[in-house]
Specification:
The chain is of the alpha/beta class. 38% of the residues lie in helices and 15% in strands. It is built from 20 helices and 13 strands. It binds 2-acetamido-2-deoxy-beta-D-glucopyranose (NAG). 2-acetamido-2-deoxy-beta-D-glucopyranose binds next to loops. The site of 2-acetamido-2-deoxy-beta-D-glucopyranose has 7 residues, from loops.
Length: 501
């Protein structure tokens, strides 16, 4: 027995995958190799199977007149006037900010100075300020014409290309929690649209694909810029945004109903590093410049928004992202870790003085040591409701916890796994090149997350085992399993059931 918590969790680990398998039984039925026998009637209905969405409704919403009108007005506001700067560069010879890693288990490292490493002339600053002010002046009118379905809640995911396969892994694990939240998967372009996955497999998982190209055309935006538009254009009023590689450990729907979401309508999660936002950003946007160590840099793989309170925030974030790659991503990160859309959401709320809750508990990281090298796998992101209740944090300490009287940090409950450090492509899982087949110096297979007794105790069950079990059941319990299944099963049996770690 690895630890006591596993015992308790045995039955859901057995029942859920079986039922999930039954639930998915038809998922692959249009492909011969995935054909399976019918489940006994007695086993049907043990997990809540969400109603199939009416596919045409959201598609109609996205291609409807109100949305077309919003995009026309938004596009016109975004592109109005010359922002006056082509690209912001670092000061010549300056390596940029160090982007210091803030160890979640260390004591508060002390205050930091707000730094600037960017070369900008006074005229450029003035020009960006004017452009920003003009756009900001249009936000409330744009917000008034932004359509959404009042009272609805749902999950929005970004995918496309190989990310659609990663999203399938996440959807399977999401549905394992029993959540009834509907999912909309935004695909960038029709070239990346996989009809079989979207219309058969995802549909059975109550997930619907929406193609951004239908609304905004092709080549209008790239990469990170799609995220803000998918949140803004999704019809849900209350949105939980998940990167394609992120999934919840429990049904996350309760977060919509409790503090801090209820009063703030916006939740963000922290990243590992110190904030590297340039003070020029505050200068240009007139945002109040608080202490650097007020919060860490932001991680935007998981976000929550209530449009009734935050449509304006989303519209300003759209502006930061529209001018992101050459301008605002530079101002907000200055070339440090993970430069991209990460800071644009939180800083839009700050600029508009809107309330939001930034989870204080820093993300956990799981991974294993093999031959003296750390192979990381995933991040653990925490429950905001529990985070708020955890009184042992101070407001100003960038998520570095005060310890309790026994000098022990008890983090809030884990809620999400963000498997971004190696990507779990459902169709490659178990392939020869997969990280699961790495062996240690004794030639043994090991858990990809390393030793996570504390995490699993906190979660109440062995999340890594559940993850592999769920995926094996969906992938391999079929009449003609794909060729990587024996290797995958061998990995699972060896690592999780022979006592080896
Ligand atoms: C670790 O070392 C062992 C023994 O030298 C070797 O067989 C194994 O492939 C190595 N693993 C990795 C991931 O490098």
């Amino acid at each position: 027995m690895l630890f006591p918590a596993r015992r308790k969790a045995v039955w859901p680990l057995v029942i859920v995958p079986i039922v999930l398998f039954l639930y998915l039984r038809g998922t692959f039925s249009s492909t011969n190799s995935y054909m399976t026998e019918a489940p006994p009637a007695s086993e049907i209905g043990q997990v809540p199977i969400p109603a199939r969405p009416d596919r045409s409704v959201a598609v109609q919403f996205l291609s409807g007149q109100k949305m077309k009108n919003l995009w026309k007005e938004l596009h016109s506001a975004l592109t109005h006037g010359d922002i006056g700067v082509k690209k912001i560069e670092l000061v010549e010879g300056d390596g940029g900010p160090s982007g210091e890693y803030l160890d979640p288990n260390s004591d508060y490292p002390g205050e930091r100075e707000r730094e600037n490493h960017l070369a900008m002339t006074t005229a450029q600053i003035q020009s960006m300020r004017t452009h920003f002010t003009t756009y900001k002046g249009k936000i409330s009118k744009l917000a008034s014409i932004t359509p959404y379905w009042k009272g609805t809640r749902g999950i929005v995911m970004g995918a496309g290309g190989k990310y659609t396969h990663i999203a399938l892994t996440s959807l399977l694990l999401l549905r394992r929690t029993g959540t009834k939240l509907p999912v909309q998967v935004f695909i960038d372009t029709h070239d990346e649209y996989d009809a079989e996955l979207c219309e058969v497999t995802f549909a059975r998982l109550n997930a619907e694909c929406l193609v951004m190209e239908d609304l905004i055309g092709k080549g209008t935006v790239s990469q990170y810029q799609y995220k803000i538009l998918s949140i803004l254009f999704s019809p849900f009023q209350h949105v939980l945004f998940l990167d394609a590689d992120a999934w919840p450990i429990y049904d996350p729907a309760f977060v919509f109903e409790e503090e801090p979401y209820k009063s703030t309508g916006m939740i963000t999660w922290p990243d590992f590093w110190v904030s590297t936002v340039s003070w020029l950003f505050f200068d240009i946007t007139g945002t109040k410049n608080g202490p650097v160590m007020e919060r860490r840099s932001s991680e935007s793989g998981i976000l929550m928004f209530n449009k009734e309170m935050h449509t304006e925030t989303l519209l300003l974030a759209a502006y930061y992202n529209w001018y992101g790659p050459d301008l605002y991503y530079k101002l907000l990160t200055q070339g440090a870790h993970g430069e991209g859309d990460k800071e644009t959401f939180l800083h839009a709320a700050l600029a508009l003085e809107k309330p939001f809750y930034n989870v204080r508990q820093s993300n956990g990281i799981v991974g294993r040591w093999i031959n003296d090298t750390l192979h990381t796998a995933a991040m653990v992101q925490h429950d905001p409701v529990d985070d708020l209740k955890t009184e042992k944090y101070t407001e100003q300490h960038a998520g570095v916890p005060k310890k309790d009287k026994d000098d022990k940090v008890i983090p809030p409950r884990p809620l999400f796994i963000h498997h971004n450090l190696w990507k779990m492509d459902f169709f490659d899982l178990g392939d020869d090149i997969s990280p699961i087949h790495m062996r240690d110096k004794d030639g043994k297979l090991t858990r990809t997350w390393g030793d996570q007794k504390d995490l699993f105790k906190r979660a109440g069950f062995d999340i890594e085992e559940m993850m592999f079990k769920t995926l094996i059941n969906a992938k391999c319990r079929v009449v003609n399993p794909p060729p990587e299944c024996p290797g995958l099963r061998n990995y699972y049996d060896t690592v999780f059931h022979s006592g080896s770690r």
